[in-house]
Amino acid sequence: MGREWEAMDLSSNVVVATEANFQEIIADEKPVLVDFWAAWCMPCRMVSPILDEIAQERPDSVTVAKLNVDENPTLASRYGVMSIPTIVRFQKGQEVARVVGAMPKAELVRRLGL
């Protein structure tokens, strides 16, 4: 299956998740971290560089995707996202871990089981 989704920019391993590509992204063979975020959310801005680092450090072992909840409210609702940032780890399409709120990188990695 070819990937129809692309990285946010050429220097990034982070992909933009939308209604159109979400199921394909989370069905990937390797673990997928989905960051449910919004532009106005200050804690989201704190977590974003941490997720970018994880994507850069582990490109072969994890996919990092960012889903803007303002642009994709149906997906946020479907996955029960009540607060942001919410980072969900998917394994072959199934949710296996969830973290809500900003935290240091080491704690985020530990709680997501990376």
Write the layout of secondary structure elements.
Layout: E1 14-16, H1 22-26, E2 32-37, H2 42-57, E3 63-68, H3 73-78, E4 86-91, E5 94-100, H4 105-112
Parallel strand pairs: 1-3, 2-3
Antiparallel strand pairs: 2-4, 4-5
Please name the defining characteristics of this protein:
5-stranded mixed sheet; 4 helices; alpha/beta; 114 residues; Glutaredoxin
Short synopsis of the structure:
This protein has 114 residues and is α/β, with parallel strands linked by helices.
Give an account of the 3D structure.
This protein is of the alpha/beta class and 114 residues long. The protein has a single domain (14-98), classed as Glutaredoxin. The chain is 31% helix and 25% strand. It is built from 4 helices and 5 strands. The protein has helices at residues 22-26, 42-57, 73-78, 105-112; strands spanning 14-16, 32-37, 63-68, 86-91, 94-100. A 5-stranded mixed sheet has the order 1-3-2-4-5, with helices on one face. A hairpin with a 2-residue loop joins strand 4 and strand 5 (94-100). The protein is globular, with a radius of gyration of 13 Å. It starts with 13 loop residues before the first strand and ends with a helix. The model is unreliable at 1-11 (pLDDT under 50).
